[in-house]
Design a protein that fits this description.
Number of helices: 1
Distance between the termini: 42 Å
Low-confidence stretches: 133-182
Largest sheet: 20 strands, antiparallel, barrel
Number of strands: 21
Structural class: mainly beta
Mean pLDDT: 84
Radius of gyration: 23 Å
Oligomer: single chain
């Protein structure tokens, strides 16, 4: 097992290398910010009954800084926050959110990037925040962003990890995934932290042929002894190659995940392979045939009745890919999956693998619609529920009433199905997650913005003790210079 200290030393060595080679022609920008928020929550402990409300004051100083050179850049943000609860003062706490990202164009056809995201908090769930620290709507990030052009992720999502926070944009704002988020049911308000580091290299070896190599290391540490700590190591590779230019293309990818859990759950080795053949009919439309295979192998004595059960997943499918313009992509394939379990009865059925996004841009409004479906393996989060089928969709909208006043609206829905894996179980577990909200922001001064937001989150589950409704109202102000300081 690679020691955590070695990972961090490697990360800082890489970033130091980037900064040193950029120093002669670098431009440094620095933007400080200070936010003050007052939030009401109707269900402080996310319980199905006996709900308790509270008012929380959140003070958050922070900054974003960037070093931009001729062939690369390094960005850093840090936002500490103190949460003061009016009634439940025993849960007053600090939270820390930080991130580093670095990119380097090593050669004309080769780019190297590094991203590290860190979160330390006692908040059990992260309610959708309409506004970022920079008073702009949060950007939606897709896992497909790491795939080489011209395709995007259409296969099974990797093993999910609550420590895998999304990358931040050039303004230093955390992206917020609309769909297929980690929504495992953490109820405890004991402190935990997550960290996700990724080092990747993208190389173009033909006119449109690309290869990407990645290594990701994640950590989840919990003060709550009932939740397993874990870490994972995950190398991956993806190749896109045109057999016949503008006619036939193949994509092949593989991911290995070594999951190490500190608790009753077994460590595991997860192997995933994906192979796709694309037939291009015109510049925007392709047909595809795909096969995805996953193998989940747990450590431990094979004779131990409490040992987690090994399984294989087979998933062939056929579909289409349609990309008429830059702000729209649609990829849908229909197939059949088989979860071949070593002991329990197998699970199988038809499945739709979907990844779509469309954005409408009007004179005063922007509307973004997204959707996703498929399966993944949730074995590195708060609950470690394993194999999961999911279907979800969402909408983000912004309307500019005037130069200084904006309105924001969002709504998301996701259905998760966790097959029981046990022939004696009465039924599979199903969760229905609905979240929606409305907010307004007002740029009172060039350096002062204010905002008000209301949101609700509803969870309905076949395990009724998991049900809850949480309504929140937030009032906030942010102080930040209108232009970053330059050096």
């Amino acid at each position: 097992m690679i020691k955590k200290e070695n990972i961090f030393h490697f990360a800082f060595a890489f970033l130091y290398y980037l900064m040193s080679i950029q120093a002669q022609a670098a431009v440094i920008t620095f933007t400080p910010r200070l936010s003050l928020e007052e939030e009401y929550t109707s269900n402080f402990f996310l319980t199905s009954d006996h709900e308790e409300y509270d008012y929380t004051t959140i003070v958050s100083p922070g900054f974003i800084t960037q070093l931009q050179g001729r062939t690369g850049s390094v960005s850093l943000y840090y936002d500490p926050a103190y949460h003061y609860n009016s009634d439940h003062t025993d849960y007053n706490s600090w939270a820390h959110s930080a991130g580093i990202t670095g990119t380097q164009q090593a050669t004309r056809n080769t780019a190297i990037n590094f991203t590290n995201s860190f979160l330390y908090t006692s908040e059990p769930t992260e309610t959708h925040n309409i506004f970022s620290a920079g008073n702009e709507p949060s950007a939606t990030t897709q896992t497909s962003g790491s795939r080489p052009t011209p395709s995007f992720d259409s296969g099974a999502a990797p093993v999910s990890n609550s420590g895998s926070t999304s990358a931040f944009d050039s303004a230093g704002n955390q992206g917020a995934r609309i769909i297929n988020r980690d929504i495992s049911q953490r109820r405890s308000r004991m402190t935990y932290y997550t960290n996700s580091a990724n080092l990747g290299m993208a190389h173009q070896f033909g006119a449109n042929d690309t290869m990407r190599l990645d290594y990701t290391y994640t950590i989840l540490e919990n003060d709550d002894p009932t939740i397993d700590d874990n870490q994972s190591h995950s190398p991956s590779v993806l190749i896109s190659y045109w057999l016949l230019p503008n006619q036939w293309r193949v994509e092949a990818g593989g991911t290995y995940i070594r999951g190490i859990l500190d608790g009753p759950s077994d460590d595991f080795n997860n192997w995933q392979g994906d192979f796709e053949v694309f037939k291009q009919f015109n510049r925007h439309f392709e047909g595809l045939v795909r096969y995805n295979h996953s193998s989940m192998l747990f450590d431990g004595d094979t004779d131990d009745e409490h040992r987690d059960e090994d399984y294989q997943i087979y998933n062939p499918s056929i579909g289409i890919r349609y990309v008429p313009r830059e702000d729209t992509h649609i990829q849908v394939s229909v197939g059949y999956y088989i979860q071949d379990q070593k002991i329990s009865e197998d699970d199988s059925g038809f499945i739709v693998n979907c990844d779509l996004e469309h954005t409408w841009i009007f004179r005063q409004a922007t509307i973004q619609v997204t959707g996703a479906s498929g399966y993944d393996i949730a074995s590195l989060d708060a609950e470690n529920l394993g194999f999961r089928l999911y279907y979800g969709g969402g909408i983000n909208a912004q309307y500019r009433f005037s130069r200084y006043l904006n309105g924001h609206l969002f709504s998301t829905y996701q259905w998760d199905d966790y097959p029981s894996g046990d022939s004696t179980a009465e039924e599979d577990r199903e969760d229905h997650n609905l979240e929606y909200g409305l907010g307004f922001s007002w740029q009172a001064l060039s350096w002062l913005s204010t905002r008000v937001q209301g949101s609700s989150r509803l969870l309905k589950s076949t395990l009724h003790e998991n049900d809850f409704i949480d309504n929140r109202v937030l009032l906030g102000i942010t102080i930040s210079p209108s232009q970053p300081y330059r050096y």
